């Protein structure tokens, strides 16, 4: 039974494993102070087009979000996100555990709108309520949609007008950048947000996220904060090797494009059967709406997740493709869809 449940079911891309094996007996300095991390940072800075950003490699996404948000907010401040935001529904209260409230607004296709930020600010007016200070978004969103340059620019403008930090979660940024709906590049993101991260875990790495600090005011003592939060790996060079490999010849982008190419074939198959989607499909996360019988037929051969059950007995389910999704598995799924 083939799994379309997520994009982190497999280990790592062969090129990454080859690079790690080749350097396996090297002796490297610890805690990310090695030549592999330095070269990986230089490669990423070249893609971003900014040499003054600060880059840190963090083992996982929740750690990265917790570290980034808690390092910025003062005790009385909160983070603003949509109700489907990863920090709100998939991180077991990690942000709240640091003493900071997560204030949510209803999502629109998984996205946050500038006017929603203004509404939160207008409501939280005085010292009797938490003070909004940071805005959290993700690209792709939890519903597989992507932000356009116009949308991100509008959010950035509001944040800068109101002295708010803007943080973009890029766990699936490779898929967002490869989307047909995308018109952003890494350099655009770096110019519009205060910090963001480039996901490796869900794009061919064994583990690791590259956290990019763009705003000078949040760089001070950041390595101390990483250590305090238990996110500093002694063998940090293992993440350096992986990001070095991902960015030295465009592999990062290739893997995101592969995931999306596999997804496009699945999208066409559902559309041919007149099966609609819960959200517009444009990345490696797809949310078709199935009847009970359709769901059961596909469940007999494939693993996927039920995202939401509707009162009429239908289901929004989630299929996820990845850097490792095989053409054969997609063709099998397409044939199964054709029988619905």
Automatic annotation (TrEMBL):
Provide the Aromatic amino acid beta-eliminating lyase/threonine aldolase domain boundaries.
14-287
- Asked if Nucleus is a keyword of the record, the answer is no
| PANTHER family attached to this UniProt entry | L-THREONINE ALDOLASE-RELATED, LOW SPECIFICITY L-THREONINE ALDOLASE
- What is the protein name for this chain? Low specificity L-threonine aldolase
Q: Which Pfam families match?
A: Beta_elim_lyase
Q: Which family does it belong to?
A: Belongs to the threonine aldolase family.
One Gene Ontology biological process: amino acid metabolic process
**What are the protein's GO molecular function terms?**
lyase activity
Q: What keywords sit in the KW lines? A: Pyridoxal phosphate
Listed cofactors: pyridoxal 5'-phosphate
């Amino acid at each position: 039974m083939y799994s379309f449940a997520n994009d982190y079911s497999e280990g790592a891309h062969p090129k990454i494993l080859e690079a790690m094996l080749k350097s396996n007996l090297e002796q490297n300095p610890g805690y990310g102070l090695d030549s592999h991390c330095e070269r990986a940072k230089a490669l990423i800075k070249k893609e971003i087009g900014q040499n003054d950003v600060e880059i840190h490699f963090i083992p996982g996404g929740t750690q990265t979000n917790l570290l980034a948000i808690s390092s910025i907010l003062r005790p009385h401040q909160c983070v603003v996100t949509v109700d489907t935001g990863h920090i709100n529904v998939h991180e077991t209260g990690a942000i709240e555990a640091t003493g900071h409230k997560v204030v949510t607004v209803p999502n629109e296709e998984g996205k946050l709108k500038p006017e929603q930020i203004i509404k939160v600010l207008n409501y939280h007016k005085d010292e009797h309520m938490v003070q909004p200070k940071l805005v959290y978004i993700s690209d792709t969103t939890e519903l597989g949609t992507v932000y356009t340059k116009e949308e991100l620019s509008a959010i950035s403008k509001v944040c800068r007008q109101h002295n708010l930090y803007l943080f973009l979660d890029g766990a699936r940024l490779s898929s967002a950048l490869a989307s047909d709906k995308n018109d952003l590049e890494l350099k655009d993101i770096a110019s519009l947000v205060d910090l963001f991260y480039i996901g490796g875990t869900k794009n061919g790495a064994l583990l690791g996220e590259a956290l990019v600090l763009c705003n000078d005011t949040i760089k001070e003592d950041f390595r101390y904060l990483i250590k305090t939060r238990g996110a500093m790996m002694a063998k940090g060079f293992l993440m350096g090797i992986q990001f070095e490999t991902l960015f030295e010849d465009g592999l990062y982008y290739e893997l995101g494009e592969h995931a999306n190419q596999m997804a496009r074939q699945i999208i066409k198959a559902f559309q041919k059967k007149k099966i609609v989607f819960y959200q517009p499909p444009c990345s490696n996360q797809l949310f078709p709406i199935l009847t009970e019988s359709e769901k059961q037929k596909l469940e007999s051969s494939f693993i996927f997740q039920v995202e939401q059950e509707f009162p009429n007995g239908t289901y929004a389910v989630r299929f996820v493709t990845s850097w490792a999704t095989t053409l054969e598995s997609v063709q099998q799924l397409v044939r199964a869809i054709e029988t619905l």
